[in-house]
Amino acid sequence: MDLNKLINESNNIVFFGGAGTSTESGIPDFRSVDGLYNMKYKYRPETILSSTFFHSKTKEFYEFYHDKMIVENVEPNFTHYFLAELEKKGKLKGIITQNIDGLHQLAGSKKVIELHGSIHRNYCLSCHASYDLDYIKKAQGIPKCERCGHIVKPDVVLYEEGLDNNNINEAIRLISEADVLIVGGTSLNVYPAAGLIDFYKKDKLVLINKSTTPLDNKANYIYNDSISKVLKDIKL
């Protein structure tokens, strides 16, 4: 069965996506040859994006965060809109994303589990007051809470921090109940997120990624290409 028929015949599809979902919107990925983790900085990006670094070198954290994690004027691409349309037709039951850019929601998707949080949500570490992305962008130096003066932290999961249990449980439910699981734009090297794929036990696992992944041998359909290029061939 080809992917076009697979998608058109299923009303229980789940999409699990990574950085490759958003690269065509101009958001750089992390792990490719030209990705963030292969650039040269005073500290390794993995170190900067850790809880320890955030609390001990907050100013340096925010310099990097503003420079590399906040991307201006980005719009959803074909993949985001295609998935939103799938959901609207009742075929897609949910999106599980490792991305923090909020582009799925901007494209119109309603059921989105953000495993690693979102740059669009920020909160005071003391009184938990909420702030939007614009507040972080306009802050001079370290963003401080208007209410109590404490540090405001992005609602993103840093290294050394655990994923939200509610998100994990809902992701497991969606994946385990899915008829078709489409995994796109992820190297499947980031755990525990990548381990969630193990909860899919059926025989319609679709893997779309430009490079090989550790789960290629388990996939029923493999496409080594960009997600949008593969999905543009689907006629709904």
SSE blueprint and pairings:
Layout: H1 3-8, E1 13-17, H2 45-48, H3 51-56, H4 58-69, H5 78-88, E2 92-97, H6 103-107, E3 112-114, E4 117-124, E5 130-131, H7 133-138, E6 152-156, H8 165-177, E7 180-184, E8 205-208, E9 221-223, H9 227-231
Parallel strand pairs: 1-2, 1-7, 2-3, 7-8, 8-9
Antiparallel strand pairs: 4-5, 4-6
Structure, described:
The protein is an alpha/beta fold and 236 residues long. The protein is 29% helix and 17% strand. It has nine helices and nine strands. It has helices at 3-8, 45-48, 51-56, 58-69, 78-88, 103-107, 133-138, 165-177, 227-231; strands at 13-17, 92-97, 112-114, 117-124, 130-131, 152-156, 180-184, 205-208, 221-223. It has a six-stranded parallel beta sheet with strand order 3-2-1-7-8-9, sandwiched between helices. It has a three-stranded antiparallel beta sheet with strand order 5-4-6. Strand 2 (92-97), helix 6 (103-107) and strand 3 (112-114) form a beta-alpha-beta unit. It is elongated. The relative contact order is 0.19. Mean pLDDT is 93; it is low at 31-35.
Low-pLDDT segments, ≥5 res: 31-35
Strand order of the largest sheet: 3-2-1-7-8-9
Structural class: alpha/beta
Largest sheet: 6 strands, parallel
Q: What does the radius of gyration come to?
A: 18 Å
In percent terms, what proportion of residues is strand? 15-25%
Helix content: 25-40%
Order of helices and strands: HEHHHHEHEEEHEHEEEH
Q: List how many beta strands DSSP finds.
A: 9
User: In whole angstroms, how far apart are the ends?
Assistant: 16 Å
Estimate the mean pLDDT confidence. 93
Number of helices: 9
The coarse silhouette is elongated
